[in-house]
Amino acid sequence: MPNNHRDIIAALAAWYSANSSWINGGIIAFIVAMGRAMFYGGKFKASLIDGLLTGLVAVTSTPILSPVLIRTIELIPGMSGVLTETSELKIELFVFAFIGVVGARALREFALARLRKLSGSTQEGQNNE
């Protein structure tokens, strides 16, 4: 049966080859987040949802965070050119794993706190005057 679908298998292999860092990074973030949630006593369904959300956040935010992290490290005095031999894939895998450890719930709480601070409102929705 696989002999009849060589084009589909070749297309899937080419797609995976072109996007393997994103796919592997999303899987890493999912597994780390799910393991973290279950380790701290979470239920399977909640940890599965947290893992999926964390994987999606990691895949969508890593293209922004990786270059920012590299440039920030290279701006430190004495660190110029340190990451030139490090491939960007290794930095991306670090960011994927870091986001997986932090988790979707902590990222959501951080983002909401930051938005509240920027808007000047309290948790009840009233303005600070």
Automatic annotation (TrEMBL):
<protein>
    <submittedName>
        <fullName>Phage holin family protein</fullName>
    </submittedName>
</protein>
<feature type="transmembrane region" description="Helical">
    <location>
        <begin position="51"/>
        <end position="70"/>
    </location>
</feature>
<keyword id="KW-0812">Transmembrane</keyword>
<keyword id="KW-0472">Membrane</keyword>
<keyword id="KW-1133">Transmembrane helix</keyword>
<dbReference type="InterPro" id="IPR006481">
    <property type="entry name" value="Phage_lambda_GpS_holin"/>
</dbReference>
<dbReference type="Pfam" id="PF05106">
    <property type="entry name" value="Phage_holin_3_1"/>
</dbReference>
<feature type="transmembrane region" description="Helical">
    <location>
        <begin position="20"/>
        <end position="39"/>
    </location>
</feature>
